[in-house]
Amino acid sequence: MDFVTKGYEPYNVLGYFEKLCAIPRGSGNEAGVADMLCDFARLHSLEYYKDEYNNVLIKKKGSAGKENDPPVMLQGHTDMVCEKNGETVHDFLTDPLSLYIKDGKLCATGTTLGGDDGIAVAYMLAILEDEGLAHPPLECLFTSEEETGMSGAMNFDYSRVSARKIINIDSEEEGKVTMSCAGAVDMGIVREFERLPANGRTLKISITGLAGGHSGTEINENRSNAIRIMGRILARLYSDTPFNLCIIEGGNKRNAIPRECEAQIYVLDSAKARETVEDEVKKIRGELTYADKGMKVRLSKGQTDAPMLSYKDSSAVINMMTLYQNGVISMSPDREGLVRCSSNMGRISTKENSVTLEIMSRSSSDSEMDALLVTFARLSKALEALMTIYDRHPGWDYNPNSALANKYVEVFDRLYGGERGRAEKCAIHAGLECGIIIGALGGNADAISIGPDIYNIHTPDEALDLASVKRTYNLLLTMLSEL
Q: Are 156 and 53 in contact (CB under 8 A)?
């Protein structure tokens, strides 16, 4: 296999990462990578366990002199968010990623890279393979479907784990050690309808070019949501001239801020409708942040014979796109700049007789999440829609006395403090599996989350900083040798 990263260090980490990029591993499609992990364990005579959810646990004995030290869990997830640009031809079920390096960063051509969380898998495999490292007994847990509800972590049999020190490698900022995260709820809102025969002139509205991003870590950056923008455009148009909706499609994942959305409608006066849409788009452009200045809105003729929704049902779908809370809902009263509660309209899709809006809401406050869900349920009832909760997973409480966090800070400052600045302890609004794992272990565990610099995760602009990969690996090896 020809490696794009040939000549970069650490060669073993980057080599495993590239091998991983050749295996399709979108959420729910982790069987291939799970089999690869089991093959690896057998090749290196390591104890392993694979379950029906494609979680894999691989154990390695402690190095000489550290055989009887308390074990440490290294943990990350095998799945990735599968996003691509509209013009990119790529099948995430079958195609390997196409990699390239630009300005010292590893990227994928027109798609997400999967550094979140492929780099954790690569780090763990490199450590498991290397017999010359000093480390305590290791329990490397590779979990599945993290990006779509953390079902892998929630269903794993933790009686197979003895470690009470957990290093999760699913963070994206070098020099920051994460010690807390938000819980989340995945839900779907379904509005059913009956279609009518087509009547009027077709108009297709396409929104592309928005920045998108992670619905947790970047929700506070005021990035525009393509579904929300489309809802605003359609609401303005409907208030001027009622129309019949035919198709609405936008976004790909509940946990990604949608960059694109497309609607097809039937109008009586296409010229007037175009004028109204263009006027509203002009207003929206004046409100966009710098990250979203690349937004494009294209008006074109749509399919001419597809059946349509009634005025009432079209209005109800517009209400779905505009009335559910989206973006930052509240900020933490205890930690400056930290979002406490948010919601993201991640995907909207049309079937023959229904429209589904998929939402991910996050909160570090269970009571605020409960209140938000009650509000959403009442709104769904008013809209004659059915709300279904797919998954709910817990957050992770901040532990100011974490020995692992203190160790990370001490090692980082010793190795890189002079050139990189001092390490920082932090809490995040995104979701991590630590809360699930700690809870499953009875609450008696010390955990941190770390990682190298990864930019623009969950978007086709994702980039993995190769120099940061090397520094973070050296830091991880130093920590393991000193635990």
A: yes
